[in-house]
Amino acid sequence: MAFQEDPRLMESKAIPMKEVVDRLGIMGLRATGQELIGPCPCCGGRDRFGVNIQSNAFLCRKCEITGGDQIALVMSVLNVDFKAALQWLCGDAPAQIDPEEMKRRKEKAAAAERKQQREQARYRKWAMDAALGIWKQGRWGGLGVVPAYLRARGILPDALVEGIPDALRFIVDHPYVKKIDGKNETVHRGPCMIAGVLCPRGELTAVHQTWVDTKPPHGKAKIIWKGEDMPAKLVRGSKKAGAIRLFTPENADTLVMGEGIETTLSALVANPLPDAAYWAGVDLGNMSGRMQKVKGKRHSGLPDMTDTDAFVPPPWVKKLIFIMDGDSAPEMTHAKLLSGLRRAMAVRAGLETEIVQAGPGVDLNDVLIGESA
């Protein structure tokens, strides 16, 4: 006798995963692109559980429940076998979760969400307070290592409009602290250029730190921890939606923004737009915000507008120009910048935008210091 597949199998897999999640009473999940992420319905692990509503795959990184379809999710959450899960999904009178159990799950998820929000708020305040403390320790950037570092990067202070920006300070002996294997380690100490990151309200919420080599020509410090090269730059605080405001003339209506301080200052040295403001976006992710995941496209270039923490230019900006670094992953970099510009246009009606690039494989600072023709 030939094997006949249970017709309910196909029926169950045709049910949208979001509907199954709702029927199971899994609470507290937040949409992130095509994924729902939040407390695990089995172990309660905060932000450990995720389900992809497009591929139907799910995973908890704490209790390790995992699967790839609607039936497997029902089996895991209700702790039932395959037959019972199929009956629950497609039966004529599928079993329902006990109302008291549903209430318990909702209360548990709500409590986990409140706890997470409190912890995030505490950490955010601690990080911003730490950043403000570092900033207050800093001395005026016209002295010390800042001019020396900028010269090493081909940026002559005299070539900058109004000289060294007020957004830059320095600390003579600053600890390089990084969490490694769950423990804060002081990896390095030395002179450091400090840049203030201001949120949209104009308040300092983070500092960008660049450790400088004590030996001429005073470029970036070489930092090694247990044989591993460490980046010479770190951010402390909350950089989200913020920027390093290097130069903002009165009546500016154009904003030129690069990822890093050096790229943006290189553009300011060239000064092609005298009435423009020049801000550094800290990093590519902050400039772009979260991108939508589109099937069949590796990098969609479309902004996920549910991300409310990405950079958006102030209302006075009529034209936004992003500088594209050409020294890494050009396709991904261009897509992210495009996503950021599209986000800005969606928020600021009538905004003009542009992406400029120094050339393949280089950035503006490379050109400035003569590493490219």
Characterize the structure shown.
- By secondary structure, the chain is an alpha+beta fold.
- The chain is elongated and about 80 Å long.
- It starts with 6 loop residues before the first helix and ends in a 5-residue tail after the last helix.
- Among the domains are: 7-97, DNA Primase, Chain A (Alpha-Beta Complex); 245-373, 3-Layer(aba) Sandwich (Dna Topoisomerase Vi A Subunit, Chain: A, domain 2), CATH 3.40.1360.
- 32% of the residues lie in helices and 25% in strands.
Summarize the helices and strands and which ones pair or pack.
Elements: H1 7-14, H2 17-24, E1 30-32, E2 35-38, E3 49-52, E4 58-60, E5 66-67, H3 70-78, H4 82-90, H5 99-137, E6 139-140, H6 145-152, E7 168-180, E8 183-198, E9 204-211, E10 223-225, E11 228-230, E12 233-237, E13 244-247, E14 254-258, H7 261-270, E15 276-280, H8 284-288, E16 319-324, H9 330-347, E17 352-357, H10 364-368
Parallel strand pairs: 14-15, 14-16, 16-17
Antiparallel strand pairs: 1-2, 2-3, 3-4, 4-5, 6-7, 7-8, 8-9, 9-12, 10-11, 13-15
Helix pairs in contact: 1-4, 3-4
